[in-house]
Amino acid sequence: MKRIALALLASFAFAATTAHAVEYGEVQPDKSRIAFDYQQMGVAMQGTFGKFASALRFDPAAPQTASARIEVELASVDTGSEEGDDEVARKTWFDTKGFPVARFESSTVKPLGGNQYEVAGKLTIKGTTKDVVVPATFTPQGGSGVFEGALTIRRGDFSIGEGAWKAFDVVANDVVIRFRITAAAR
Amino acid sequence: MDTHYTATAKLLHWLIALMIFGMLGFGFYMTGLDLSPTKLELYSWHKWAGVTVFLLVLVRLAWRIGHRPPALPAHMPAIERLAAHAGHHLLYLLMLAIPLSGWLMSSAKGFQTVWFGVLPLPDLLAKDKALGNLLETVHVALNFTLIAVLLGHVGAALKHHFIDRDDVLTRMLPRRRG
Ligand code: HEM
Ligand code: HEM
């Protein structure tokens, strides 16, 4: 009797581990990157954020249960020039003193087939929260998985660039946020 | 042999001279501004105008190769002839090197040059902050060199006109009628 119970327990445990065979969650910051593209005087420009923290849970077998939370330290911005970095920290841009962190928090993850997913969630920058839908891909790579995607936001929606910068003729309204987050299987 | 520069050479000399004086003033003015949309706009205009100067200088050099300038006045001692030739070579060199350094600087800083917002110039250098700052120093140093050489150039032109009383200045000026 005891042996049967043990065997049952063992098989349950086995079933449980196979259902969650791989859950990706151990984010590897050195293999992750958050960048942004925008247009300045009609010229394509790029910038990056050096510091961000992400908490992920993703099981390819059960994508609906996945969740993601990404917090970007806005003061870690690299616009390509020191003058630019100082400028975007100001009140008219990110106001990094008042709002040091931009946050994305997923609510639902919808598989679109293949390695494509649609991640819905809330994006908060400078005190404004917007619902966003982010198309993303997942690619297993050795013992880890790579999440990649891009999201276009309008900086005006989040009051990024006020005052003299409010017009979009010099710095365009659209900003593409591109991310690549690598997480090891747990 | 004609004692004047060709009309084309004169036109290009004075057009480019005017543009370069404008570029120098413009350059020092814009770099002193606080960052603003206006500053970014002015930087773009500086780059576009600078590329235009560069193209005009290429046209000027092509013309110069096909049209020898009038001979220098016979009274000039060898040392002055040498100084005149060296000075003119240096001016041509700077007229090419300054816009080139500006373009490479922009490229290294990650600010591509798109001529008048229409024609993208290739980025010959990958984004590299340290290199960008170095090229900025080069751009500025070349500009100061240009200013020094120009002081000599204008001084020499005035000396020829008012002290030597030869035709070196007038042959670069429009022909007098009559
Ligand atoms: C005949 C051509 C040119 C002249 C006489 C000229 C002159 C100048 C001068 C006087 C400055 C200010 C130097 C300082 O104090 O920083 C400057 C800055 C600058 N120039 Fe030019 N320039 C020329 C062409 C170009 C071109 C073709 C480009 C780019 C495509 C360019 C890009 C820049 C940039 C980006 C700066 C600002 C550097 C900074 O941030 O301090 N320039 N230029
Ligand atoms: C940015 C400003 C200028 C540049 C880059 C420049 C450049 C040059 C160059 C390269 C030449 C040699 C032409 C040749 O023989 O191939 C030349 C000739 C000449 N320039 Fe300028 N120049 C400038 C401004 C001026 C100014 C302001 C004056 C007037 C005072 C002037 C007076 C002359 C004269 C008189 C000649 C003829 C010299 C001769 O007969 O051999 N230039 N210039």
UniProtKB/TrEMBL annotation, chain A:
Database matches in Pfam families: YceI
- Using the record for this protein, list the coiled-coil segments as residue ranges, or answer none: none
* Keywords attached to this entry: Signal
Which positions make up the signal peptide? Answer: 1-21
* InterPro entries, per database record: Lipid/polyisoprenoid-bd_YceI, TTHA0802/YceI-like_sf
Q: Which residues form the Lipid/polyisoprenoid-binding YceI-like domain?
A: 24-184
SUPFAM superfamilies of this UniProt entry?
YceI-like (SSF101874)
Keyword Ion transport recorded: no
Q: Which PANTHER family match?
A: PROTEIN YCEI
User: What is the protein name given in its UniProt record?
Assistant: YceI family protein
Source organism per UniProt: Thauera aminoaromatica S2
Automatic annotation (TrEMBL), chain B:
Question: Does the keyword section mention Transit peptide?
Answer: no
**UniProt KW keywords:** Cell membrane, Electron transport, Heme, Iron, Membrane, Metal-binding, Transmembrane, Transmembrane helix, Transport
What Gene Ontology terms describe what this protein does at the molecular function level? Answer: electron transfer activity; heme binding; metal ion binding
Q: Which Gene3D superfamilies match?
A: Transmembrane di-heme cytochromes, Chain C
Required co-factor(s) are: heme b
Specify the Cytochrome b561 bacterial/Ni-hydrogenase domain's residue ranges.
4-174
TM stretches of this protein:
12-33, 45-63, 90-118, 138-158
Provide the membrane topology annotation: Multi-pass membrane protein
Cited Pfam families:
Ni_hydr_CYTB
A cellular component annotation (GO) from this entry: plasma membrane
What InterPro entries does the database record attribute to this sequence? Cyt_b561_bac/Ni-Hgenase, Cytochrome_b561_oxidase, Di-haem_cyt_TM
Report the locations given in the UniProt record: Cell membrane
Keyword check for Calcium, yes or no: no
One Gene Ontology term of the biological-process aspect is:
respiratory electron transport chain
The UniProt similarity line reads: Belongs to the cytochrome b561 family.
* UniProt protein name: Cytochrome B561
Name its species: Thauera aminoaromatica S2
